[in-house]
Amino acid sequence: MLEMPQGQQAFAIVDRIYEASFAAELWPEVLAAAGAISRSANGAIFVVSDHSPVRAITETHLQPLLDEFMKRDTWRFSESVKRMCAAQPASFVRVDNFITCEEIERDPVRKSATAFGIGPHLCTAIPMPGGELVLFVFQRWLKDGSYDQAAIDLLNGLRPHVARAGLVAGRLGLERARTAVSILREIGLPAAIMSGSGRVLTANPLFEGMADVFLPTAHGGMAIADQTANALFQQAIAQNRDNRVVRSIPVAAIKGRPALVIQLLPLRRAAHDIFSGADVLVVATTVGTGATVPSPNVLSGLFDLTPAEARLAVELASGHSVQEAAMEIGIAVKSARTYLERIFRKTETSRQSELVALLKSAWSFS
C-alpha cells in the first residue's frame, strides 16, 4: 500500500485536531500522527495556569511516565520550561536555541529525556485570553538527530489549528465534555453553536448577554454589530466549504467594552456528534485594552503570525511605510515585502490600508 504524502497527512490531521479539542481522549492519536510526519519520538500538550495545576497529555504508551514525572515536580526547576514559558514562541522553535549546553546538562527535564534516549525538542506556546498558556512539545530520538527545517515547517502548518483547538482544550482541562450543554458551560467564555449555513442552534448565557455585540437576523441567523467585523463574519459563513470554516475576527472596542476576538472553529467527527450535527463553534474572547496598536504577541495569537511578521505588522499599524518599518526592525525592504505578502494571506487582506484597518480594529480606540 502506498503511503499518503506528507501534505495530505497533515491535511487529514487537521480534522482530528478539531475533533480532539472536544474529545480529549483523541489527543494522543493526533500527537502520534503529527509526530509521525515530523519524525518525532513523541508529542505532548501542557496547559499552564496560575489558577490550577499544570495539566499534560501525551501519546498513550507514554502517559504513565508523564504523569509520574509531573508528580515529582522537578519540571518546575527546568530552565527549558522556564525559557519557553517566558519566550512564548509564536511558531515551533528548537528549544536548544534558547538554552546553553551547560543548562541542558543540568536541566532535570533533559536529563530524564536523555535517559530514555530522547534528544532534540521543538516547542510552541499559545497564550490564551483567560491567562492559560498551552504548550505543544515534540521530541526526537537522539539517534535521529536534530529537527530539519522541513519537519518544523510541517508542524508550523498545523500550528494555526492547534492554537484554536487549544482555546477549547485549555478551558475544558484536557478532558472530554460529554454534551453540548456541558461544553458551553465549562468553556467559561461567550459561545454559541451554528449550522454551516449560519443558523444559531444554541448559545450559553454569557453569549446571550452580549446583545450589544451579536444581533439576531432572519431565519435564526446572526450578525455582529460592528460593521467591519460583520463583513468578515458573513464572508466566512458564505465561503464555508464542507463545514470547514476557521477564522479569527477582531471586533473594535467601544466605550464600556474592550476589544474582542471572535473565533470560528469547525466541529469535526466526534465533536460534530457531540453537538448533534452542528457545524461551527463561535467563541468570543476579550483582547484587552491599554494601547492603540496591538502588541506582537496579540497579533501572533489572532492571526498566527510569526514573530517577524507580527513586528512588521505592528510597525505598519503604527503608520509606518514598508520601507520605514523595515528600517525600524532591522530587515531588508525585500524581506519586509515578503513578510507583508504572508501577512496578507494570513489576515485575508490584499491592500496595506485594509490590513492596517483590520489590525487597529483588534484594539481599543478609546
From TrEMBL:
SUPFAM superfamilies: C-terminal effector domain of the bipartite response regulators. Residues 302-359 form the HTH luxR-type domain. GO terms for molecular function: DNA binding. InterPro entries: Sig_transdc_resp-reg_C-effctor, Tscrpt_reg_LuxR_C, WH-like_DNA-bd_sf. Keywords: DNA-binding. GO terms for biological process: regulation of DNA-templated transcription. The keyword Transport does not apply. This is DNA-binding transcriptional regulator, CsgD family. It comes from Mesorhizobium muleiense.
